[in-house]
Structures are given as structure tokens and as C-alpha cells.
């Protein structure tokens, strides 16, 4: 089987969630779960001030674009390209170009899976990043995002922090 890659699809602005829902429905109807693996509209939390009130809202990182993890072939290309609201794939001409590892890293998308030797409840040491040389206990693990939530002591209190698997090791 061919390898799945992340592709960027251009949509009408404001139709990103609708396109995501339509593609997911088509995947289900045509049984393409093994070829189109994930459809994502990258979001980020932004703090806004309105009328003197601080409010956190989710905003689209790239309005008008949807990310799709899929195996590129004639069937999947046709399904995505002919979804209502999709104007086309990002790439020269009609040839879609997959995202590189470097392009995906800031989006929080990892291609290679990291195997870990710790589980929830284990003590771990942070070996890289802002929390380097900190020791904590794993509270939760997210295998999809390849992150672990650990409790670290901050200002005399236990505080949960989400850290990449690549930045921690088992004790």
C-alpha cells in the first residue's frame, strides 16, 4: 500500500468545517477509511479583549484551507477534489504536493511515531525544552499528538503541563 501524506486543500473561505464534514461523510459512505485517514481544520486559541473583558476563542490558523492525511490515488483525489466547497489542492497545476516534515512541525502534526517506555502514573524527567531538568508524574498520554501531560511543581503547586514524547524520558 502507498504511504499516506498530508496535503493542503483550498476551500471557499468560511466553508472549512463544512468541507471537513462533507469529506468525512464521503469517507464513511465510500469506505475509504484506510485511504483518507484524517481531515483537519487547524485551530488556535486566541485571547481577545471585548468591552474590557478578556475572552479566549478558537480561530482558524489558515482560513480557506483544510489539511488532509491521505494516500494519493485517482479515487481519493477525485473524492476530495469534487467535494462541495473545495476549489482544489495546493500545488503547481493539478498536481498536489504533500507537506514536508518541517512544514508540519509548527502545526503540531508528527509523521513518525515515537515509542515510549513509560505509562500513566510513571515518573519521568524532561530532557529538552522549557521544562528541561524537571521531574514529573505522567497524568495522561495522547498517542495521536505524541504528547504526555505531566504534573510539575510551579510556585509550590502541582501544575499539569503537556510535553512532547521526544522531550521526556522514563526514570
> What is the N-to-C succession of helices and strands?
EHEEEEHEHEEEEE
The fourth-level CATH homologous superfamily of the largest domain is: NusG, N-terminal domain
What is the general shape?
Answer: globular
Shape-level CATH architecture of the largest domain = 2-Layer Sandwich
Note the total helix count. 3
CATH class of the largest domain: Alpha Beta
Average pLDDT confidence is 85
Rounded to the nearest angstrom, the distance between the terminal CA atoms is 38 Å
Q: What's the number of extended β-strand segments?
A: 11
For the biggest β-sheet, the strand order reads 10-9-8-7-11
CATH topology name of the largest domain, in short, is: Alpha-Beta Plaits
Radius of gyration: 19 Å
Percentage of residues in DSSP E strands: 35-45%
Stretches with pLDDT under 50, minimum 5 residues: none
**Class by helix and strand content?**
alpha+beta
Tell me the count of domains. Answer: 2
Instruction: Give the fraction of residues assigned to helices.
Output: 10-25%
How is the biggest beta sheet arranged? 5 strands, antiparallel
Descriptive account of the structure:
This protein is an alpha+beta fold and 171 residues long. The chain has 2 domains: 5-107, Alpha-Beta Plaits (2-Layer Sandwich), CATH 3.30.70.940; 123-170, SH3 type barrels, CATH 2.30.30.30. Helix content is 16%, strand content 40%. The chain has helices at residues 16-30, 74-81, 101-104; strands spanning 5-11, 36-40, 43-50, 53-60, 65-70, 86-89, 123-126, 135-142, 147-154, 157-164, 168-170. The strands form 3 sheets. The chain has a 5-stranded antiparallel beta sheet with strand order 10-9-8-7-11, with no helix packed on it. It has a 4-stranded antiparallel beta sheet with strand order 2-5-1-6, covered by helices on one side. Strand 3 (43-50) and strand 4 form a beta hairpin. The longest helix is centred in the N-terminal third of the chain and has 15 residues, at 16-30.
Amino acid at each position: 500500500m502507498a504511504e499516506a501524506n498530508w496535503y493542503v486543500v483550498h476551500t471557499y473561505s468560511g466553508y472549512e468545517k463544512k468541507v471537513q464534514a462533507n469529506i468525512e461523510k464521503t469517507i464513511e459512505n465510500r469506505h475509504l477509511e484506510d485511504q483518507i485517514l484524517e481531515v483537519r481544520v487547524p485551530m488556535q486559541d486566541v485571547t481577545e479583549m471585548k468591552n474590557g473583558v478578556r475572552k479566549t476563542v478558537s480561530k482558524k490558523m489558515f482560513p480557506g484551507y483544510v489539511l488532509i492525511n491521505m494516500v494519493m490515488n485517482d479515487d481519493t483525489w477525485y473524492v476530495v477534489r469534487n467535494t462541495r466547497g473545495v476549489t482544489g489542492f495546493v500545488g503547481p497545476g493539478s498536481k498536489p504536493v504533500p507537506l514536508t516534515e518541517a512544514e508540519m512541525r509548527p502545526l503540531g502534526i508528527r509523521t513518525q511515531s515515537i515509542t515510549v517506555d513509560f505509562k500513566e502514573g510513571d515518573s519521568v524527567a524532561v530532557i529538552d525544552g522549557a521544562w528541561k531538568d524537571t521531574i514529573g508524574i505522567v497524568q495522561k498520554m495522547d498517542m495521536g499528538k505524541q504528547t504526555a501531560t505531566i504534573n510539575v511543581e510551579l510556585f509550590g503547586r502541582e501544575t499539569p503541563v503537556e510535553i512532547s514524547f521526544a522531550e521526556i524520558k522514563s526514570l
